[in-house]
């Protein structure tokens, strides 16, 4: 007889109990599985945030120092929500399995009590013997069932969490990639358009990687308004205003300021190529009058529909109107009184091409001292130079004058320094400041032509101004220009005839040609507006 064999009288009850336990476990597991899943998902939903729109959510991190904007959901709040999901699931499953199903219901069943009997409760009427045995025999099946159901529910929730996490990860990766792409497209657009951002204000003139933007609603300062952790396509300011994060999306419509000097920048800043053109000349050489004539000529071309000329800022509009009013009233304008000028900014458009013109007009005394010239940091950004040549200021030219020509030259108030001296000082410092002198074009403008045409001691300026300069004794200047700088072109202009109440429209347009030619060197299609009279090299 096998000592390990079970008495048939015992094997049948055990088999029946095992089948009963298995059936109870299966039924309880089928109940515990959906119950655990539904309650866990419900708890997770409540943990994500308030059900009422606009209600306070304590999980949201408040705005601290730095950017006055809330972090984008995928960069910070997503981590808080993930922790809430995991904590909610762990809490619900632990409460259901350990505290309620095993700690209360299964324990009562194993003790022969009804499942609903509270822990530690002593009923005054004990359960019947048959009921107590039946409850005790049900306990193991119930315990096994809730453990199996909860385990399967936890595995299912883990699988869902992993799949959901992968999807969220893909979305976050896509958003991060989109941020990098937007930044790259902004840089590529600037590189393709050759846009180099520079401050136009005196004492600054610094390169700008990214302007500072002020919220149009609350004026909060956003130091780094670009695609990133505060938003890919838009960011939400602390006041709720949505701000575009890319120049391609219209960021230029937001007020921009220089990060170095905190002064306002023009609306076209960052989307239009900037062309820096300083007007260089000695004291009383006619620089400011020439600049006023250039403005008049650009307006003339704009009135004819050949160009679109707009003021970059209201300050530029007021300054040009002030100059025009003074010319109409007095016939002349005051000399520039600052060594480091603020750039006059105009947006020039022809066809689909446009440029943001920075026109600098420093005082003439600036170029009388090499140390002061070296402080003109805007020269480092120059895309071209307008060299104002007052021929009457050159001693060699004045020695040629006789008769009544000498008094006429004195009445024209020539510069105390000749154009060759001014040029030598500019050329010497320009190389140190810019490093690309040989590639910089120079528009040489002979001013006071109305006086020069009256002098009988000198030949009349003709079609080739460079040949005329050589003939009157300024050949060294012409040769130096051809040797030191890039392409050079020459004009002779009467600023008095181009400005004021009786301005000649043709002379105004001629005065604008030096600037238009320099703009054409940057790719603006204005060559059809230029005459063929000016000498070329």
Low-confidence stretches: 533-537
Oligomer: single chain
Radius of gyration: 42 Å
Proportion in helices = 40-55%
The overall strand count is: 12
Query: Which class do the helix and strand fractions yield?
Result: alpha/beta
Give average pLDDT, whole number: 85
How much β-strand is present in the residues?
5-15%
Q: DSSP helix count?
A: 14
* Cα-to-Cα separation, first versus last residue: 125 Å
Strand order of the largest sheet: 7-8-9-6-10-11-12
Tell me the major beta sheet. Answer: 7 strands, mixed
SSE topology string: HHHEEEEEEHEHEEHEHHHEHHHEHH
Shape: rod-shaped
Domain Double-GTPase: 277-500
Organism: Streptomyces albipurpureus
Protein name: Double-GTPase 2 domain-containing protein
Transmembrane segments: 12-33, 152-185
Describe the structure.
It is a single chain. It contains 14 helices and twelve strands. The strands form three sheets. A seven-stranded mixed sheet has the order 7-8-9-6-10-11-12, sandwiched between helices. Strands 2-1-5 form a three-stranded antiparallel sheet, with no helix packed on it. It has a two-stranded antiparallel sheet with strand order 3-4. Helix content is 47%, strand content 10%. Helix 1 (8-48) runs antiparallel to helix 2 (73-110) and helix 1 (8-48) packs parallel to helix 3 (129-192). It has 537 residues and is α/β, with parallel strands linked by helices.
Produce a short descriptive summary.
This is Double-GTPase 2 domain-containing protein. With 537 residues, the protein is of the alpha/beta class.
């Amino acid at each position: 007889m096998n000592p390990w064999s079970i008495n048939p009288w015992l094997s049948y009850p055990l088999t029946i109990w095992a089948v009963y336990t298995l059936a109870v476990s299966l039924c309880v597991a089928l109940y515990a599985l959906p119950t655990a899943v539904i309650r866990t998902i419900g708890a997770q939903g409540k943990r994500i945030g308030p059900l009422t729109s606009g209600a306070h959510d304590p999980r949201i991190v408040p705005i601290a120092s730095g950017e006055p904007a809330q972090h984008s959901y995928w960069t910070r709040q997503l981590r808080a929500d993930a922790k809430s999901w995991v904590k909610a699931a762990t809490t619900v499953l632990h409460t259901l399995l350990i505290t309620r199903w095993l700690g209360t219901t299964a324990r009562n069943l194993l003790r022969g009590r009804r499942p609903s009997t509270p822990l530690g409760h002593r009923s005054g009427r004990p359960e019947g013997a048959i009921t107590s045995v039946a409850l005790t025999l049900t306990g193991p099946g119930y315990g096994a069932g809730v453990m199996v159901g909860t385990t399967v529910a936890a595995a299912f929730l883990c699988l869902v969490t992993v799949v959901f996490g992968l999807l969220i990860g893909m979305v976050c990766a896509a958003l991060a990639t989109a941020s990098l792409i937007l930044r790259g497209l902004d840089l590529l657009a600037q590189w393709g358009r050759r846009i180099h951002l520079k401050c136009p204000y005196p004492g600054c003139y610094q390169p700008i990687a990214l302007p500072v933007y002020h919220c149009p609603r609350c004026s909060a300062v956003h130091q780094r308004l670009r695609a990133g952790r505060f938003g890919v396509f838009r960011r939400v300011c602390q006041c709720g205003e949505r701000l575009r994060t890319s120049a391609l999306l219209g960021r230029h419509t937001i007020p921009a300021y220089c990060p170095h000097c905190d002064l306002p920048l023009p609306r076209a800043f960052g989307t239009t190529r900037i062309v820096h053109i300083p007007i260089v000349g000695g004291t009383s050489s006619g620089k400011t009058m020439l600049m006023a004539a250039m403005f008049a000529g650009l307006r003339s071309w704009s009135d004819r529909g050949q160009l679109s000329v707009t003021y970059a800022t209201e300050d530029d509009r007021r300054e040009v109107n002030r100059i025009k009013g003074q010319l109409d009233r007095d016939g002349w304008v005051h000399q520039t009184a600052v060594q480091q000028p603020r750039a006059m900014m105009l947006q020039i458009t022809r066809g689909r091409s446009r440029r943001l013109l920075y026109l600098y007009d420093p005082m003439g005394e600036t170029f009388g001292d090499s140390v002061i010239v070296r402080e003109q940091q805007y020269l480092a950004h120059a895309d071209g130079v307008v060299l104002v040549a007052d021929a009457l200021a050159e001693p060699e030219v004045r020695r040629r004058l006789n008769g009544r020509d000498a008094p006429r030259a004195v009445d024209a108030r020539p510069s105390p320094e000749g154009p060759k001296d001014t040029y030598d000082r500019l050329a010497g410092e320009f190389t140190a400041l810019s490093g690309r002198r040989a590639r910089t074009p120079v528009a040489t403008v002979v001013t006071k032509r109305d006086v020069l045409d009256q002098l009988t001691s000198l030949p009349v300026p003709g079609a080739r101004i460079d040949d005329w300069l050589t003939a009157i004794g300024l050949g060294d200047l012409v040769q130096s220009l051809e040797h030191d700088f890039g392409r050079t072109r020459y004009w002779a202009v009467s600023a008095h005839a181009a400005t004021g109440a009786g301005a000649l429209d043709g002379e105004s347009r001629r005065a604008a040609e030096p600037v238009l030619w320099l703009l054409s060197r940057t790719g603006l299609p204005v060559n059809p507006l230029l005459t063929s009279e000016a000498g070329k090299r």
